[in-house]
Amino acid sequence: MNDIDAFEANLRGTLRRAATHVPPDVATSLTTRLSTPAPPRRPRTRPLVAGVVAAVAVVVAAALLPALLGSEPDPTRGQDPSTRSQTAGVALDLSGQTLQGDAVSVADYGGRPLVVFVWGSWCKPCRNIAGRLSDWSEATGIPVLGVDTSDTRTKGSAFEEYHRIRYPSVFDPDGRILNSLVDRRPGVVPLTLVLDAEGVVSERVLGAFEVERTLSRALANMR
Amino acid sequence: VFGIDFEEFVSARGGALVQTAYLLTGDQAAAEDLVQIALMRTYAKWEQVDHPLSYTRRAVLNAFLDGRRRPRREIPSRSYAAAVADEHADGQSVATRIATREALWQVVLALPPRERAVVVLRYYEDLDDHEIATALRIRHSTVRATVSRALARLRRAHLSELQGER
């Protein structure tokens, strides 16, 4: 009996020791983050500062929430006319400059379904999806418009090149577009929207997903 | 959840969640991915979730056990004997205890996923049968059976290591 207890104690020690392989500050590399206040140049560094600022922002947002429920969209968001807060049944209004500097708008894709994919080079789960989306888009002929959020132009472009992404991405360095897409909630990426031919959001997917399956189902539901 | 915001939760508990996930995967990047997936689920349900830690932990376990059903990168599960042999190669007897732990960790990693999950919840998270049953959505009796099966496997390996030393 003693033997077993000693063994279990050993097992406990083993697990504790193994767990220390993970540095305790690893939480800072988790890519769930608020989009608003974190300065774009350091999305994965100085997390404490960003976290505190973000936490304050959420507390403020939470305090405002009851007053806002059932009324108009958060007045502090979507001030830019190109990124107004979205309401159901209304075509998504999103435009800006691509990472390469060309003007682009969802309106350019009018008349056919469009997938809007919000990503950042700092977002781990985005890596897989970004490339697969590109392949999927070419295979199906359904266009994808990316939104590179809270990022730098250099990092965003490097990400595009590395993952061989062939759809354009709107550059959203201060996270304003992301904010406009996540009504009154902190923005988390990857965020994917499927728009119907009228430009109305018919499906939103938060987080990682299986590209082919999810999107073909979303498109099937649309018809 | 009222009174806690998501971001605070992530910075307070994210590290511990990744550590737990690391014990499941044996790989830090994979552990971070699991926690990331789990946090996305928690985030989506934030208003309805009463106990974000146990909710997220359950999501980590689900993500881990789901992922295991699909073919994916295998964790190199070396034999216990080989691990011990390596550890003892330079013949430091002072390091034996540490080596044994390292070797025991290798055996834990070689456990089937569900057994490993139960071992981690019991011996790292210190959860009782009831909590483990809830976390894994299995019966108490299954928890007990799985724990004893895993322990038997581990002890057998431990024993063979002791004999291997002679």
Summarize the entry for a quick read.
The complex is a heterodimer of chains A (223) and B (166). With 223 residues, chain A is of the alpha/beta class. Chain A has six helices and seven strands.
For the structure shown, list the relevant keywords.
heterodimer, A: 223 residues, alpha/beta, five-stranded mixed β-sheet, two-stranded antiparallel ribbon, 6 helices, 15% strand, B: 166 residues, mainly alpha, 74% helix
Chain pair with largest interface:
A-B, 43 and 40 residues
Strand order of the largest sheet of chain A: 5-4-3-6-7
Q: What fraction, in percent, of the residue positions of chain A are helical? A: 25-40%
Largest beta sheet of chain B, briefly?
none
**Subunit arrangement of the protein:** heterodimer
Strand percent estimate of chain A: 5-15%
Low-confidence stretches of chain B: 70-81, 90-94
Question: For the CA atoms, what is the radius of gyration of chain A?
Answer: 21 Å
The helix content of chain B, as a percent range, equals over 70%
* Strand content bin of chain B: under 5%
Count every beta strand of chain A, where a strand is a DSSP E run of 2 or more residues. 7
**What is the count of helical runs of chain B?**
8
Label the structural class of chain A: alpha/beta
**Coarse shape of chain B:** globular
